[in-house]
Amino acid sequence: MIRLRIRHRTTYRYREPVRLLPHCLMLRPRESHELRLLTMSLTVTPPALVTWASDVAGNTLATATFQTMVDTLTIDSDVEIELNAAPWPVFDIAASAISYPFRYSDDEWTDLGALATPQSPDPFRRVHDWARAFIYSTPTDTLSLLKDINAGTGAGISYVVREEEGTQTPIETLERRSGSCRDLAVLFVEAVRSLGFGARIVSGYLFNPDQQAAWPWGAGRSTHAWAEVYLPGAGWITFDPTNRSVGGTNLIPVAVGRDIRQVMPVVGSFVGMSDAFLGLWVEVSVTA
User: Fold this and answer.
1) pLDDT tens readout for residues 8-37
2) Any idea where the Transglutaminase-like domain is (predicted)?
């Protein structure tokens, strides 16, 4: 078990005062048998009315509503958690799903719904064919197949830091052979969905005791994105294609969703001149 402190500051700056519309904030870690939230403080400057709710995926969502015109918006989150994820997890996969292909139960298919359906257009089945190339025999070991796709995503796609907004489509990531953590996570999720798996995107933080290390990528300096795949018996299994890892020993999940757009930490807009927006700055610190 390790105790971690997560400090996350988001700053927006504008050329002149603007009117802020409500901002949606996903900054509260998801509690589970592996993660316990100890404390959390959320400070919004200028002061805002903050209301809390749960979305359809069970994520905690804060909505900040503003009353004044501003030229700077700062959102500070300070969290302490206890993380108790096994470094070498053993997954108790149901006998019916140990070998691929397998079939989810009717109830599982109904509940997974769109999580088991590719969300990005792939008219020439390029993502599907790329994923099928990891199937070396039929039937094959399910967990080994998923591990191979996870490792193949990280090995075949070069990691790059992309500061610009938005996420590449899986086809763009395959063509460019490079992408950010969110691009790799989306490619992995769409690839396994094309093979019939239920999968979802996860956003949160990655803890690296050595902030200067080249691996894991992105640790402690920004938010991180990875994936989870549902397997009967084992439940949701964590896959981080950016770091080619399995299990959540150094991952702090905040939000899960069908699409990367549903798990963004801060989403909002403003009313003002089209050139009023100067920039966005994000600072993240994850320390023991």
Assistant:
1) 999 999 999 999 999 999 999 999 999 999
2) 173-243
Q: Domains in the chain, start-ordered, CATH in brackets?
A: 2-84+265-287 (2.60.40.2250), 95-263 (3.10.620.30)
pLDDT of residue 164: 67
Rg (CA), the chain: 20
Q: Where residue 1 falls among pLDDT bands split at 50, 70, 90?
A: confident
- Rounded distance between C-alpha atoms, residue 212 and residue 215, angstroms: 9
The DSSP result for the chain, as a single string, is -EEEEEEEEEEEEEEEEEEEPPEEE--SPPP-SSEEEEEEEEEEES--EEEEEE-TTS-EEEEEE--SEEEEEEEEEEEEEEE---SS------GGGSEES----HHHHHHHGGGGS--S--TT-HHHHHHHTT--SSSEEHHHHHHHHHHHHHHHSEE----SSS---HHHHHHHTEE-HHHHHHHHHHHHHHTT-EEEEEEEEE--S-TT-SSSTTTTTS-EEEEEEEETTTEEEEEETTTTEES-TTEEEEEEESSGGGG-SEE--EES-TT-EEEEEEEEEEE-
pTM over 0.85: yes
User: Above pLDDT 70, what percent of the chain?
Assistant: 95
